């Protein structure tokens, strides 16, 4: 039988709406791990996209489809621009509903604009080092793809784990791909210990290859209500530059559900054959600090280290530092992580500790939940700002404005601002005036005065902003003109 699937359009659908905190404090709800440049110059998201850009493959990719949420839209857009990706769309979910709605929104968009096509669903927070072998695997899997097929990708388990679903395949077949006989969603630790004894099991990577029509047909069969609401939400979606916004009123009527629970576990019918390919190259989901430690340098005392560290009578620790020099004495089996504004010290053996802490904060049992969820650095479409110091009546910020970018024309009711240029050249709109500030020069913005900060140059602009007032709040802003359609 001739396989025509390999000649169809292929849409990489990259799911990047997660809020993971098991790598806290590097990963926060305001800046989750898919966007973090953990051990290099590119984030996990950027590396996921670059597999397709750095290898000369035969895929016909009209667009990359990213699915995320409103909170992360500008972080995502900035990271896409950093790697110079040209053809893409960003679907913005009104709220977080897990992976099944994300995949369905992407499928509906592709169907509306490109008819039936091949869809490769990819997590954005996994690390695959060998781009060539990864692309070769996708090329090979396309040759096996048929109508109504679901192709999954599995990893040979290395230990009992509660973090993955398990794929059981037909052990009578000699070569991959193999037919899937059973799919087991994330088990408890006792069940995982039993599963690991079987030789015909793989961890589910969370990657799926199939036709768009196959996904929509499966959703129609197993989750009709969800599909109907998502179709309604996409009937009149709003387009804002590269952003696609489904209608909130219909989207918010659906329940949260994962791809695995919503569809994969229900595919016992022969009408939807399930087959699996196996990763035979290095892969990790970087799900926690123990997983990340495998990529860090190891010293003679079995300490996994990233950053500047000295250990005295210390062994089997994970030490991660972005800036400061860390010294330990007599410490064993401990995780020590220093980020820009937070420090985590935990038991290396308790992999679920950060998840438990996150649940405590979600129940609002602590007042400093904001510090747990947010970083001092906040990303905006024009660049970012970093909170340096604050009190009840003042706040000091470092503001970075990208070349050829500007903040909105705005005013503040409760605060005034003092700006000092430390790098670059600023163009300032203040009331009816417009003027330039060079390095070392400053200006004062009064309360209720319309103002705007602009970088018209080809180099970054950095200013130090000192806010003064009776109320220092990010909500104290009235926008009159904004290039990014914010209120």
Helices and strands, with pairings:
Blueprint lengths: L9 E6 L28 H11 L9 E6 L3 H10 L5 E6 L5 H16 L3 E6 L3 E2 L2 H14 L5 E6 L10 E4 L8 E7 L4 H7 L5 E11 H11 L1 H12 L2 E3 L2 E3 L2 H4 L7 H4 L11 E5 L4 E2 L4 H5 L3 E2 L5 E3 L2 E4 L5 E4 L4 E4 L4 E5 L4 E5 L5 H10 L6 H5 L3 E4 L2 E8 L3 E8 L3 E2 L2 E3 L3 E9 L2 E5 L2 E5 L4 E4 L5 E5 L5 E9 L8 E4 L6
Helix pairs in contact: 1-4, 3-6, 3-7, 6-7
How would you describe the overall organization of this protein?
- This protein has 487 residues and is α+β, with helices and mostly antiparallel strands.
- The protein has 3 domains: 5-284, Spore Coat Polysaccharide Biosynthesis Protein SpsA, Chain A, CATH 3.90.550; 289-350, no CATH class; 377-481, Jelly Rolls, CATH 2.60.120.
- 22% of the residues lie in helices and 33% in strands.
- The chain is built from 12 helices and 32 strands.
- The strands form 7 sheets. A 6-stranded antiparallel β-sheet has the order 21-22-23-31-26-29. The protein has a 5-stranded mixed beta barrel with strand order 6-9-7-8-12. The chain has a 5-stranded mixed β-sheet with strand order 14-15-17-19-20.
- A hairpin with a 5-residue loop joins strand 14 (297-298) and strand 15 (304-306).
- It starts with 9 loop residues before the first strand and ends in a 6-residue tail after the last strand.
- The relative contact order is 0.11.
- The model has no long low-confidence stretch (mean pLDDT 89).
């Amino acid at each position: 039988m001739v396989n025509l699937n390999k000649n169809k359009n292929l849409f990489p659908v990259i799911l990047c709406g997660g809020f993971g905190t098991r790598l806290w404090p590097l990963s926060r709800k305001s800046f989750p791990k898919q966007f973090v440049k953990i051990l290099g110059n590119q984030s996990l998201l950027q590396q996921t996209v670059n597999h397709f850009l750095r290898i000369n493959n035969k895929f016909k990719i009209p667009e990359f489809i990213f699915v995320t949420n409103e909170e992360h839209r500008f972080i995502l857009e900035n990271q896409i621009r950093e790697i110079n990706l040209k053809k893409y769309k960003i679907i913005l979910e009104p709220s977080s509903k897990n992976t099944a709605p994300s995949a369905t929104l992407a499928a509906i968009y592709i169907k509306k604009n490109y008819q039936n096509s091949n869809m490769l669903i990819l997590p954005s927070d996994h690390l695959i080092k060998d781009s060539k072998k990864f692309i070769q695997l996708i090329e090979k899997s396309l040759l096996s793809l048929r109508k109504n097929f679901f192709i999954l990708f599995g990893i040979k388990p290395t230990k009992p784990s509660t973090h993955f679903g398990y794929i059981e395949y037909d052990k009578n077949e000699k070569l991959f791909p193999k037919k899937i006989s059973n799919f087991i969603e994330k088990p408890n630790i006792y069940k995982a210990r039993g599963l690991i004894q079987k030789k015909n099991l793989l961890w589910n990577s969370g990657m799926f290859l199939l036709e768009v029509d196959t996904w929509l047909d499966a959703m129609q069969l197993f989750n009709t209500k969800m599909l109907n609401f998502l179709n309604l939400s996409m009937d009149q979606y709003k387009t804002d530059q590269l952003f696609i916004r489904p209608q909130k009123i219909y989207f918010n009527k659906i329940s949260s559900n994962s791809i695995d629970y919503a569809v994969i576990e229900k595919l016992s019918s022969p009408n939807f054959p399930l087959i699996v390919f196996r990763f035979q190259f290095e892969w990790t989901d970087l799900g926690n600090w123990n997983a990340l430690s495998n990529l860090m340098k190891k010293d003679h005392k079995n300490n996994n280290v990233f950053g500047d560290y000295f250990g005295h009578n210390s062994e089997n620790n994970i030490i991660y530092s972005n800036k400061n020099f860390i010294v330990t004495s007599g410490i064993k089996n401990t995780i020590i992580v220093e980020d820009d504004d937070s420090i985590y010290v935990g038991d290396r053996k308790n992999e679920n500790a950060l998840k438990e802490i996150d649940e405590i904060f979600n129940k609002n049992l602590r007042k400093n939940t904001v510090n747990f969820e947010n970083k001092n650095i906040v990303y905006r479409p024009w660049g970012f700002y970093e909170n340096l110091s604050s009190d009840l009546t003042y706040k000091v910020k470092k503001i970075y404005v990208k070349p050829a970018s500007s903040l909105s024309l705005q005013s503040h009711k409760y605060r005034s601002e003092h700006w000092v240029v430390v790098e670059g050249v600023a163009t300032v709109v203040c009331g009816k005036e417009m003027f330039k500030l060079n390095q070392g020069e400053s200006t004062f913005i009064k309360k209720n005065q319309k103002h705007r900060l602009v970088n018209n140059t080809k180099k970054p602009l950095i200013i130090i902003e000192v806010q003064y007032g009776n109320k220092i709040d990010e909500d104290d802003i009235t926008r009159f003109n904004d290039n990014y359609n914010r209120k």
